[in-house]
Amino acid sequence: MLAVPNVSPKPPEILPFDGSDTSDFQRSVLNHVVFTCGKDVKDATPRDFYRAMAHSVRDRLIGRWLATQRAYDVGDHKQVHYFSSEFLTGRSLGLCLLNLGLYDAAESFARERGLDLNAVLEAEGDPGLGNGGLGRLAACFMDSLATLQMPAVGYGIRYDFGIFEQHIVGGEQVEKRDGWLEMENPWELARHEDAQLVRFYGRTQRHTDENGETRVEWVDARQVIGIPFDSFITGHKTQTVNTLRLWAARATQEFNLNLFNSGDHWRAVEEKVDSENISKVLYPADQTEHGRELRLKQQYFFVACSVADIVKRYKRRHKTFKHFPDRVAVQMNDTHPAITVAELMRVLVDEERLPWAQAWEITVKTLGYTNHTLMPEALETWPVAVFERLLPRHLELIYEINHRFLREVQTRWPHDAARLGELSIVDEGGGRRIRMAHLATVGSHSINGVARLHSDLIKTSLFPGFHELWPERFNNKTNGITPRRWLLYANPGLSQLITELIGSTWCDKDLMELERLREFQGDAHVLQRLSAIKQENKRELAQLIKKTQGISLREDAMYVVQVKRIHEYKRQLMNCLEIIDLYLRAKEDLSVLNVPRVYIFAGKAAPAYFVAKHHIKLICDVADVINSDPSLQGRLKVVFIPNYGVSLAQRIIPAADVSIQISLAGKEASGTSNMKFALNGALTVGTLDGANVEIREEVGVENFFLFGMTADEVSDASARGYSPSVCIARSDRLRAVVEFLESGFFSFGDAERFKSITEYLRHHDPFMVCADFDAYLEAQRAVGELFAKPLAFSKKALLNIAGAGKFSSDATIQNYVDDIWKLKPVPIPAASAGASILPGR
Predict the structure, then answer these.
(1) What is the torsion angle, in degrees rounded to the nearest 10, for the CA atoms of residue 530, residue 536, residue 541 and residue 544?
(2) Catalytic residues
(3) pLDDT tens string 93-103
């Protein structure tokens, strides 16, 4: 045994954990350095101390977790099961330390040993199990459910490789694999005893059972094993620890020894490789038939595992399915889990032998569907041929669901044949396809949008026929963000100031308490402190950018930030064109940069989304030219930060002065980065789109820099026949920018490099960049003018923080709980959380 000074060779006793025993925690960390990492303390690296701290935290979580699960089971409480193909959780250690009240203990431990706690926290991988807002929303919701002590389980996929690691090489996005599982993940437990079998392919056959009923069997199918891995979701200042259960695919036959010995080495492992590809990569490319089939496999795989898991747990306490909707709520996060409708019906009808009518009533009462997009091309559809091959029984069930549904439609509107085609789950035009959003809508008792404008547009534009048929099913649940990660943890300086001003309960009870900050809008001392905190955050971000990108930034500049998925409708292109306009004017008169500006971009483009990737190339080429132009004297800089994710967002958002939220009105469902920026005191330049509408109302119209067309005006312009060339012709500044881009100035004389972009702007421009461009210039001018008045700018920043309280995910989840899921909180006593893991209990 290693001799370690001041460390007992005996692991510390596991106590009832209230999160406050500093010495016990520090002793536990030292023991894990030795017994888990196998290191002498003096030789341990930051990575070793991360592992030791993570295991020490996990030791304290397991008791609470077991107590939580026991309380849910013994009390037979109704639980929500959140189905999402993405959970973008971010790093766990720092937030867990905060939630358990151990952050100060960790800082003290690091300081006493000459460690940098930040280096320890940075040693944790950043799980990329999501692409953006959808996965981050799911993670915020899980945080809030645990904090509100609500019975909940998250279900998804444990991808071997998450969203790709983005590199920028020569201004081009290059995708590399995200090996988040290459290092040990201490935050999960494999639960092999809860493995599930999932079937694909095969055929169906009918027979008559002993009661004379016709039954359908799914036979000759290939089988895949789903192994669950449970992660811990901790509540803030509660004993509740909920479960995030992610499924990994494993083959039923690992290795065929006979084939291997005969020399057929590939076929010996073919089944293993094919099976495990299901949970290999988040969103495999779907340009090929095989890629499309793999995506559908992924969706069915995690849904089938999760439904089987839920039914198994329910049957432990219930002999019939009479009370199933009273004990089980399932929320489908977008269309990816929409196959749940057919799968739950298959289980209830084929396996549990319930009559169709009863099974359908249970299914509809159990399921809820959250829609996240207004763009028809983003609503998933699958060719019937793919369904027939991969999920033959489910296709039969969907046909039957559709047949019965269309009878209801025909009864309501007996002489409206066009409505049948509009509402049908099966799209008969242009190749028969299954409309997954229609399936989710027909099979759910609740359909919600994620911002007030979005929910209204669902009713009037996306699904007007469904809304007319079932108006009572449609509702709005504006998205929210967790203040624990996005303020308390990400911005400790601002959090401390808020706590000094209004007390400490804002982050764990009611974020609307931030409204009290309005009392300080005339307090110059508070406004100066707020400005100083922002300046410190900018200094830290500038250091990070200098270290990683080699670009020096002025810390007195106005930091203008647009960080989100790269997509045409989010209009990073318009932001870039405004930078070119500013550059052109600065070359003629440097005084236009009396307020220095730093433009920061970050975000990933889908690997096959070549237009979006070309926009990244444009931004990077513009940045190279501007950043190397000595005549600007450093007053204008442009930075594209690669590999945007949760941890990087936590560094960027607190440093932003201006939040760019410029999607074309009517295209963004909600957005959540807009909420994070406002909560951290950035002023928004934005359109009336998504949650921007509600943010503007809450922070005050005078504290929001609005520009651009409304959703109705966009619709009208499109109906009239939108012509971007007309917009270019009547705008001198836009015309100059387009012509300058065409000249090849930003591509070293290569006039062809960005020709596709200028041609797009002149002749297509589906997201109306040209129409909104001049208004955007004016909004940027106005916010720059305000930045030159520090106290006035800080006052508006304070009012943005004060108005952001509505956008807590706690409030959003409470609305889901009250209106859709009908849950009750289940407090976990501290004593039971400690006692649950003691021997003999």
Answers:
(1) -160
(2) 372, 564-565, 570, 672, 676
(3) 999 999 998 99
